[in-house]
Design brief:
Strand order of the largest sheet: 2-3-4-1-5
Structural class: mainly alpha
Largest sheet: 5 strands, parallel
């Protein structure tokens, strides 16, 4: 115990105006009642701590600030003792060893009967707490929950002595949406909306903007290459919306400015530059203009590789080699840098020789003072093994390669190398059936390294790995939370990863049996019937799955055949296996006998890498085929592992990728028993006694049933269940 307020739960907040946000209050009370760990988060000034104190005002609770308290100061009492523990200011915990101590304490407390744990911080659940969240599902209460309703805003202003005209009140609502900070500022400025808005910007600058990366300075550096700055040019160079600036220059015949803008975009890697979107401009450039610029020659080689025109890609590589031979000084060095970049990055060359290139990086670039051109290891995909290159072969010897060239790779790749090795090991292990906690440990290690001066793209991989672990453990809802949290971050830091983040979310919708949300994603899915874009491979594979679920087998077959052609031509081993498995499923549903041969090829190939999760991700859909076909397996243990994992996943997601409608709802047998007894008029206590469980267990089933049926009351749940013929 630290002071009297901890012993008695005394409200030590200032006596200012405060109205409890209803959404947050309901969630916190429900978490306390159900014995779940409550996790409150929001930026400074949103009233997180105040909410906890208000809700707990009439209860005995212990309050600790992680800023002032060490974990060992929070005692662990005998199991079964009623106790509420609030730990605030978790964002101040930065040292790894302290994080581990707090995590160990929280695990002990969360696992004790009778203990209610409330955690408070400024951001969503941090990585060091994710294993705990997987083990004990957190009730998250976020910043949106802490905002007041319109009625709450009006009540707050009235209690503050502020009377606004209806028009001003409407404007205040539109600007602030009930955000606690906006209301405090409005009250401080006596209802002056304009002045409150000005102060809100100052608050944002102090508490929000200073957390952003310095994207603005990078943008200014890039736009400085052109003479005329326009809003449209800014959009093009930052990769945001369109290419209006190029259209403008083209309209006025300004060839030099077009070359400059295209050269600036060419300095980016395919993940950051608009390679595919601007292909028409690059392919229209006069060849003599390209031959005078090593950056553009490098770009043309990469562009043609992305377009699967490997002969033209190699031609431009040779032109760049000739340029390097004919020039000296800075021009020669720039050309050699670009050649080395292409040696590593060209998609169609595969990854066979990259290890030796990385080992000899020092001799290949002697005396260089400038860094290697930026090389994206992910190309905005949630994967390293199937990101910028295919690294299936490396997976066979992942530990050895990590030890031998891991450090060199991290140095050569610069920011893209931070966190690379542990993330690569995590993904390789995940595919081969590694224990979930070991995958999470490696993924977290990689994420922390990436956040320490690395790239947000690698944080995308970390988030994807953690989401896959959640899916594989039957918690697709938590996987969605992980990816949604990453997506919110990416909107600010890595907007080019958003399309693939949305595709990943769509994959989760399939596990959660939410075809309506998957269909909504399909409205923005890429169209493979025009020019096939190899950078869209993850979204194409997602689209194929949605087509299979929707019964569009013909569309799925056509798309998967294109993906197989791409995989064979561009040496994409993993995509070849994944597309083959999905193709076998599509052929099976179409009643075509080729499915057995296709599936056999996939099994043989995956078996050589011990890729278990390739099959188990497809749950019972893959299991049906694996058990039906008379397949040849070289490794009996691998076969057993694959089938066992598929059966386990089928139990988690029994109707994954099965054709059906959004109206279908499946409830666990225990939840159905509760519903039937409720239909008989039994109380919660009576149901608990009859089932031999705690009342909180019955309440939990109610909560989940209400959510799935889209209702809020017992009567409505019973009526809806009868309509759906569930009871």
């Amino acid at each position: 115990m630290q002071d009297e307020s901890r012993k008695r739960g005394k409200n030590t907040a200032d006596n200012d105006v405060y109205i409890r946000p209803k959404a947050a209050e309901r969630k916190l009370k429900a978490a306390l009642e159900l014995g779940m760990v409550a996790y409150l988060y929001g930026v400074t000034g949103t009233g997180k701590t105040r909410l906890a104190r208000e809700v707990l005002a009439r209860k005995q609770y212990e309050y600790y600030s992680a800023r002032e308290t060490q974990p060992e100061e929070v005692g662990v009492k005998p199991d079964g003792q009623e106790r509420i523990v609030v730990v605030d200011d978790l964002y101040t915990v930065t040292l790894q060893e302290i994080k581990e101590c707090w995590a160990a304490l929280f695990r002990k407390l969360a696992g004790q009967e009778g203990v209610r744990l409330v955690l408070v911080s400024r951001a969503p659940v941090p990585g060091w707490l994710l294993p705990l969240q997987v083990e004990y599902r957190f009730a998250e209460i976020g910043e949106k929950d802490l905002c007041l309703t319109r009625r709450g805003q009006d009540a707050y202003l009235e209690l503050s002595g502020i009377r606004l005209e209806p028009e001003a009140a409407d404007r205040a609502w539109e600007l602030g949406k009930g955000h606690p900070v906006s209301l405090k500022l409005l009250a401080l400025e006596n209802g002056d909306v304009d002045l409150a808005v000005k102060n809100m910007w100052l608050w944002l600058e102090n508490h929000i903007f200073d957390q952003w990366e310095k994207e603005l300075s990078e943008f200014l550096m890039e736009t400085s290459i052109v003479e005329n700055y326009t809003k449209e040019l800014a959009a093009m160079i930052t990769g945001r919306d369109d290419v209006d600036a190029l259209e403008m220059y083209g309209e006025y015949g300004d060839a030099e400015d077009i070359r400059r803008v295209l050269s600036a975009n060419a300095r980016r890697n395919p993940a950051a530059g608009s390679y595919f979107e601007l292909r028409g401009y690059y392919l229209s450039l006069p060849e003599e203009m390209i031959l005078g610029d090593p950056v553009l020659m490098c770009y043309m080689s990469m562009l043609h590789s992305i377009l699967m025109d490997t002969e033209e890609s190699e031609r431009w590589y040779r032109e760049l080699e000739e340029y390097a031979k004919k020039h000296s000084g800075g021009e020669r060095r720039e050309a050699r840098r670009r050649l080395f970049y292409l040696d590593i990055a060209l998609p169609h060359r595969g990854s066979a020789d990259i290890a030796s290139l990385i080992k000899n990086a020092g001799s290949l670039l002697p005396g260089q003072r400038t860094a290697l051109p930026e090389f994206s290891v992910t190309t905005n995909l949630p994967s390293l093994m199937n990101g910028g290159k295919d690294f299936c072969e490396w997976s066979r010897h992942d530990r050895e390669l990590a030890a031998s060239i891991g450090k060199a790779a991290s140095i050569v790749l610069g920011k893209y190398g931070k966190g690379l090795v542990p993330l690569a090991l995590a993904e390789s292990g995940l595919e081969k059936g590694m224990d979930s906690f070991e995958v999470m440990r490696l993924a977290e290690k990689g994420r922390i390294a990436a956040e320490g001066g690395g790239k947000t793209e690698l944080c995308f991989v970390a988030a994807a790995l953690l989401a896959w672990v959640a899916v594989l453990n039957g918690n697709a809802e938590f996987a969605e939370d992980i990816m949604t949290a990453y997506r919110e971050r990416a909107e600010k830091e890595a907007p080019r990863t958003l399309p693939n983040a949305d595709a990943f979310l769509c994959r989760i919708y399939l596990y959660r049996r939410q075809p309506a949300r998957a269909a909504e994603w399909m409205e923005k899915a890429p169209d493979e019937n025009g020019t096939f874009c190899t950078l869209e491979r993850f979204r194409y594979l997602t689209k194929a799955r949605v087509c299979l679920m929707a019964g569009k087998t013909g569309e799925a077959l056509a798309l998967l055949e294109q993906l197989l052609y791409y995989a064979e031509k561009m040496k994409r081993t993993y995509i070849h296996m994944e597309a083959s498995l999905l193709l076998a499923i599509a052929l099976y549903r179409a009643g075509r006998e080729e499915w057995r041969e296709t599936l056999q090829g996939c099994v043989t190939q995956a078996e050589s890498y011990h890729f278990v999760r390739l099959f188990s991700r497809e749950c019972g859909t893959a299991l049906d085929l694996l058990e039906t076909a008379d397949l040849t397996w070289q490794d009996g243990d691998f076969r057993t592992e694959v089938l066992d994992e598929c059966r386990r996943m089928e139990k988690f997601y029994p109707r994954y990728m099965e054709q059906g409608t959004d109206a279908e709802v499946r409830l666990p047998e225990q939840a159905l028993k509760v519903l039937r007894m409720q239909a008989e008029g039994l109380s919660t206590r009576a149901i608990a006694e009859r089932m031999g469980v705690k009342e909180n267990t019955v309440k939990y089933h109610n909560k989940e049933t209400y959510r799935k049926l889209g209702v809020n009351t017992r009567t409505a749940a019973v009526n809806e269940a009868r309509k759906r013929k569930l009871i």
